[in-house]
Amino acid sequence: MAKRPGAESALSRGAVGAVLTFVGECALLLAESLRRLIARPFEAAETLSQMAFIGLNSVPIVALTTFASGAVLALYSSELLVRYGASSLAGAAIGLAVTREIAPVLAGIMVAARAGSAMAAQIGTMAVSEQIDALRSLNVNPVSYLVVPRLIAAVVTLPMLCLVGVYAGVTGGFLVSVYRGGVPEGAFWTSIRQWVESGDLFKGMVKTVAFGAIIAVVAAQQGLRSREGAVGVGRATTNTVVISMVLIYVANYFLTALLFTGR
Fold this sequence. Notes:
Helix content is 84%, strand content 0%. By secondary structure, it is mainly alpha-helical.
């Protein structure tokens, strides 16, 4: 049975309204968090705890995924470059791809999947169990106590994870290029020194600052609006991972266009 035009129009309006509500809530939450950055009391202990949770505990998974991605990239590119006599460019191709795209994006994706989901679940559980209302009754601002430490931790630790990913990805690419692809070791490192600049690494790390803000704000927004008990917490967790990943890829396009094009 065909849907009535009125029903389709209502669904469209509902979808647009949901998107606008999400954007508005995230914008207000980010603005409030930035305002609370300089407000007292500053939750130093919670901030350090979140840095350890988001940053330190994510090092193994970021290193492993970027190492594997660099190795796979080298598996394809080194054989082709050697075949056409361009093995001297193998290091440059892997170095630029890892520093500009692979390490920043994978660091953001891994943190969104591992830490973003956990942040949404933690805040969502507090919301449905009325612990956030209890904080307000004790004159503790939920944004200062829950959101600001996670925002600071994500923004500070994501660039460090990106740096870890760069070293791991280049190492994986080096091992596969040299010991499987037949690229001379000296030519690999020489091409990296010639083509990969410190600005490439720095701009890749700048990307992750935006990714960290996206993850923290989305996780907090979804957690704070959780309802309906365990079902609502599960929905908030799933939404956080999906929305964060989509926004990271969208933001990555615009940041790449802004930082790297025209060179």
